[in-house]
User: Fold these one by one.
Assistant:
Number 1:
Amino acid sequence: MSQSTTFTILLGGELRLTDRLRAATAGSRFIAADGGMRHAVVLNAAPELWVGDFDSTPEDLLGAFPDVPKQPYPAAKAATDGEIAISEAIDRGAKRLILAGAMGGERSDHAIQHLLYGIQLAEKGFDVLLTSGDEEAVPLLPGDLELALPAGSLFSILGFSDLTGLFIHNARYPLRDFHLPFGASRTISNVAEGPVRLSLGSGRAIVLARPYDLSGV
């Protein structure tokens, strides 16, 4: 049987184990980035590699996983631990990348960078999901996208450029062939009416969804 081409990258942000997260990572291979290794306990995962400068890794965590191969890097390096971990996954044949712990936490610069990098990875043809368990993010590029969201859950579309030809179907606030100027808030806080279908003519965006937040019901 061939090895899985789905890799879960354990990052340093917040992570809560949910049914959706468990289903998404089932059968995945794992690579940990520095202090993101703590999520291996939550996910009952056995990472095949642990990379980073280990500046955010407590000694007890280092001692808890003595058998996981470590690939250390100096603190003064040209990429984040997360980007290094993703590169290692790609070198090992990754097609789908789940960035677990990509959002929240103490470092908003890292969280924003993960979103930007997620878009870049999607443009290169990778299937990308960023997740904290409670919140999920998926790149939206020209073409069609369907999100399996429960009715009543919240989602927003954040444009990282002007968006043209935007369609939103099966949502409380549908749009048809819409032009969203860069920085506009029109697509914040929509409500799914079940699986949401999206289409984009041009531009780059991120869909942020809260599948367990049913406050829109």
Number 2:
Amino acid sequence: MSGLPSGSDKKCPQCERLLPVTDFHRNRRRADGLAYYCKTCAAARSEASRRQRGIGALKKSPVPAGLKWCPDCGEIKPLEDFPRTRKASGRHSYCKPCHNARGKATAQRLYGGTREYHLRRRYGIGEKEFRELLAEQGGVCAVCGDPDPEHVDHDHRTGWVRGILCFNCNGGLGQFRDSPARLARAITYLRGTTWQRVLIHPGVFQMCSPTRGRPPSRRS
């Protein structure tokens, strides 16, 4: 093993014993390639930390195939109850409820809440910048003018924030793929300046142009 001190022993600062290097876990981030504490002390410290956080004792009994043990809630659950991950195991260590609870706790600790975390992670702005931008718009949706919009609109190509929109306007731009050409054609269509199929008799349609006028209605 590269980076190890001379000899084959190392002193653990916890138990102050001089032990063989095989009594220490590997740690590539450390200069000597070994963990700071010996395996016994590392396990004891980990267990003490878990108890301090109110987490149950580490389960040692084998878990049947197709199931997985969650160290937070201490329950054995089907693999489908654990979020997928790219790790070798294919599943996160904690079940979905515990995984979500940890995520919320982290967002609360680091950002003061899940919304602040979402805004900064997704758009690069915080609640303060959101409120400032909304105030510049007069407190209304930048497209339709409805009050109290809650959705950040951004350019999907550059990632730049464009404004604050209501749910319908934000979704509408997304459905039109942020394409000015598609929106222009939609406006032309709504204004009735394109050929349209008109019902002139039950089950009979005719293509009509506004420049030529529409067939008279057959409703009596």
